[in-house]
Amino acid sequence: MCGIVGYIGQQQAAPIIINGLKRLEYRGYDSAGVCIVRSPELDIAKKAGRVVDLEANVDISLLTGTTGVGHTRWATHGIPNDVNAHPHTDASGRIALVHNGIIENYLTIKKKLVAAGYGFRSETDSEVLAVFIGMLYDTLGDLESAVRTALSEVEGTFGLVVVSTVEPDMIIAARRGSPLILGIGNDEFLVASDASAVIAHTRQVVYLHENEMAILTRTGFTTKTIANVETHSVIDEITFELDQLEKGGFPHFMLKEIYEQPMTFRDGYRGRLLIDEGNVRLGGLTSVVDKLRSAKRIIFTACGTSWHAGLVGEYLIEHLARIPVEVEYASEFRYRNPIITPDDVVIAISQSGETADTLAAIREARLRGATVLGMVNVVGSTIARETDAGVYLHAGPEIGVASTKAFTSQLCVLTQFALYLGRMRQLGLEEGKNIARALDAIPDQIHAILEKADVIEAIAKEYAGVSNILYLGRGVNFPAALEGALKLKEISYIHAEGYPAAEMKHGPIALIDENMPVVFIATKDESYDKILSNIQEVRARNGKVIAIASEGDDHISALASHVLTIPTTHPLLTPVLASIPLQLLAYYIAVERGCNVDMPRNLAKSVTVE
């Protein structure tokens, strides 16, 4: 959530910043702004709405200068309007900043500033920080010292970039809990909250660490801690391609990413899957093999879609490796005084690797002595750096806010992890081979489902006007039902709930009538007969049934209003295939309703505040 782009170099900054902000639009935001240093003044333009609204109201060509910063804001303190939009300035108008995160003690600081005679224009915590830095500059006479002193008194999180007329050839950046990277170009430097904003200019990047500052000038940069201890930066290289950030002929990023899943799923096991050995090679876990072998319990911690993936992981690991597994909402984990021991392995699942609640959870787990692993998509992300070991998803950039390909890539990695643990313990060779062969068949099976997208689109048109939909599944398919419901509510704004099918009669069945569609994951497995009974219960109350069924199931068509078939796979891998038609159903319903599927209202791609 929120996007930051800063530039200092030889080129005009405004066009570079605006284009960078457009690359970050997928993160979710409700206002945009830019500040260009034109000493002795700061030229600031900001507008509620999208970047295009900013461009429509401001002639960007008039914002001339080679140093500047821009921001897309996701509202926390204060409603989305022009005044609350970033950048914010100090009282003198000489210093401007953009800020991702939340200043938790801003009211305390604001009270002191008001007592000292300072006034405020906005409702934001960020303006308080800007005014505070300005006051400190008046005392210290040095911008870097003023920023460092202010941040040493701040409680909360920040990804912060400061520009000023007092130091017109300098950008100061700092982070705590909210990601920032430096882009190292030829005679130019960028700072951004995401690599996608800098890749058009450079592949060389530095990932700022927790409580680290960067001072950028036209000739170079230095990094140090907020406590003023110099640090040594490591320059990494962006590995994805610029065309991965384009729609590639698709109407939406979400649809493109749904169709990328045969490739991204295969990339998730490429070089790892050992079919003839019924095993996998996970090099990122080499350093913790002994911990995994002796682990008494696995705890997944995650949020949203990643939490659903963790639920599938619970079924996989308990079935294949016979290790007890718990799945925790990261947002609740550290607040309930969890019982953690050194024999536990805590695994954080996150697409972005920056999810604030998940980061807080793993830090709590480490304090309590657990081995902490990460399963993330973004290379160099905070979770990847702060865990003992881990496995990357290799799904590539995911632009659509509602996760699709990252979810199936998480299931790919979780299946391999469960197989890895199982073969380490008691899982036999033949069963290992069965799982490995089933994994290797998934990409082609996903492709076969995608070829029937027109059937799903037609069904979506019929249900685009409903107000509620219920999603039901049993066993390992229950998390897939939860994920299907989440996809629908995220992008179409239709109320949807996922339930274990057997729980329907313990409450939700009261909602069933001719206006309540029910989606069943009803593939042929050990609970198939039970699912058919649940379908009959819905039919008896005039509910309409959409069934996700196994290919060749001729019986279920007599019970369901609509049947979407998926290829037969190992029962533990059914959630992967079942998710594809559910993603498409949500997508086509949202499109039919005229919703912005890539940037659904109120949501952000990377949730970096608690």
Treating each run of at least 4 consecutive H or I residues as one helix, how many helices? 18
Taken together, the total number of domains comes to: 3
- CATH superfamily of the largest domain, by name, is Aminohydrolase, N-terminal nucleophile (Ntn) domain
Mean model confidence by pLDDT:
93
Apparent shape: globular
Structural class: alpha/beta
Low-confidence stretches: none
Distance between the termini: 11 Å
| Beta strand % | 15-25%
Largest sheet: number of strands, sense, barrel closure: 8 strands, antiparallel
Total strand segments: 26
Could you give the order of strands across the largest sheet?
A: 3-2-4-1-10-9-11-14
Task: Indicate the percent of residues in helices.
Answer: 25-40%
Descriptors for this entry?
single chain, 610 residues, alpha/beta, Glutamine Phosphoribosylpyrophosphate, subunit 1, domain 1, Rossmann fold, eight-stranded antiparallel β-sheet, six-stranded antiparallel β-sheet
Q: Could you provide a short overview of the structure?
A:
The protein is an alpha/beta fold and about 600 residues long. It has 18 helices and 26 strands. The protein is globular, with a radius of gyration of 25 Å.
Task: Give the SSE layout.
Layout lengths: L2 E6 L4 H11 L7 E8 L2 E8 L2 H7 L9 E7 L14 E2 L5 E6 L5 H10 L9 H16 L2 H11 L4 E7 L6 E6 L4 E4 L4 E4 L11 E4 L4 E5 L4 E5 L10 E2 L15 H7 L1 H9 L3 E2 L4 E2 L8 H6 L2 E6 L1 H17 L4 E5 H4 L10 E7 L5 H12 L3 E6 L5 H5 L2 E4 L12 H20 L4 H22 L2 H11 L4 E6 L4 H15 L2 E6 L16 E6 L5 H12 L4 E7 L11 E5 L7 H19 L18
Helix pairs in contact: 3-4, 4-5, 7-13, 7-14, 9-13, 9-16, 13-14, 14-18, 15-18, 16-18
